[in-house]
Design goal:
Largest sheet: 2 strands, antiparallel
Number of strands: 2
CATH class of the largest domain: Mainly Alpha
CATH architecture of the largest domain: Orthogonal Bundle
Strand order of the largest sheet: 1-2
Oligomer: single chain
Number of helices: 14
Strand content: under 5%
Radius of gyration: 20 Å
Number of domains: 2
Length: 294
């Protein structure tokens, strides 16, 4: 696909992912049955996407590349191990047989839930799923970015091929595209010479999402408040943040926009041209799906 890129599409992807399982009862039933909380349940399910190789504390795997709090995931890992769902061997974490059973049951429950959803007419849903699945496979197999941590999770998430034209295929495609987007974004900010936590702070200021230090800290719960303040102070010295306010300067906005532009280039360039030609239709239908999901 050639520019201009359909930049209205990426924000619709996480919105879909936050909505598509909102009315599922299976996670609540299982957390009560197993005596774990929802974050631990989600941690176990996410670990299942790593496959037989398991996962490590490396940033971008179990640890967030945007976080500064060491071992923030450890309470969830401990709770999962206590419930017999995971085990740790030689610094890596794996699902136990019980954990694998839970992940398989969750996959079946999700597919059953998706079969009840009709956010678009059947033919439109099938076309949307087909187009986005093609975009995912093209982007996942592209030569750039060369380093990928999250794209492999998308293939683990699929487990098997969802039925063509189904809501399950749409879900797999969107989840996959979001993992690809993660890898593209990480490549873009690494090329800028900045760290993940610093870029996350700059992003919030670029979007003018926080009125004061407390509000900014509330948005960045995976960072220590002192680290957030330090990042802001450092970028003020560089002239990227306005004195006395939490807003990016023109120079700061330029730095952040350059990262966004490179993310878009990496993400959209592999998309097939005929998929790109239907990007306005894709965005319109995604908005319709998200609206219908409530």
């Amino acid at each position: 696909m050639k520019p201009p890129y359909p930049v209205e599409i990426p924000p619709l992807l996480p919105l879909f992912l936050n909505k598509r399982r909102a009315k599922m009862t299976f996670p609540l039933q299982k957390t009560e049955e197993l005596g774990i909380d929802r974050p631990t349940f989600i941690w176990v399910i996410n670990l299942s996407y790593r496959g037989a190789a398991g996962a490590s504390a490396e940033p971008g795997d179990l640890a967030s590349v945007y976080g500064t709090i060491p071992g923030r995931w450890l309470p969830m890992a401990a709770a999962a191990r206590g419930a017999g769902l995971t085990e740790e061997r030689d610094g890596r974490w794996y699902l136990t047989e019980k954990g694998r059973g839970l992940a398989a049951a969750m996959r079946e429950a999700a597919r059953a839930h998706y079969a009840t959803l009709t956010p678009l007419p059947k033919d439109e849903l099938a076309e949307l799923a087909r187009l986005l699945d093609r975009a995912f496979f093209a982007a996942a197999k592209a030569t750039e970015p060369t380093k990928r941590m999250h794209t492999p999770f998308a293939f683990g998430y699929r487990a098997d091929e969802p039925p063509a034209g189904s809501f399950a295929q749409l879900d797999a495609a969107i989840y996959g595209l979001w993992q690809v987007r993660d890898d593209c974004h990480m490549a873009a900010w690494r090329a800028s010479g900045r760290s993940g936590p610093e870029v996350e702070v700059l992003t919030r200021l670029w979007r003018e999402e926080a009125a004061d230090d407390a509000a900014l800290a509330d948005l960045l719960t995976h960072q220590r408040p002192a680290d957030v303040k330090g990042a802001v102070a450092g970028m003020r010295k560089e002239g990227l943040v306005e004195p006395g306010s939490l807003k990016a300067t023109a120079a700061g906005a330029k730095v952040r926009q350059k990262i966004e532009d490179e993310t878009d280039r990496l993400f959209f360039t592999p998309w097939p041209d005929d998929v790109g030609a239907k990007s306005s239709w894709i965005a319109e239908k995604l908005i319709g799906v998200n609206t219908a999901l409530g």
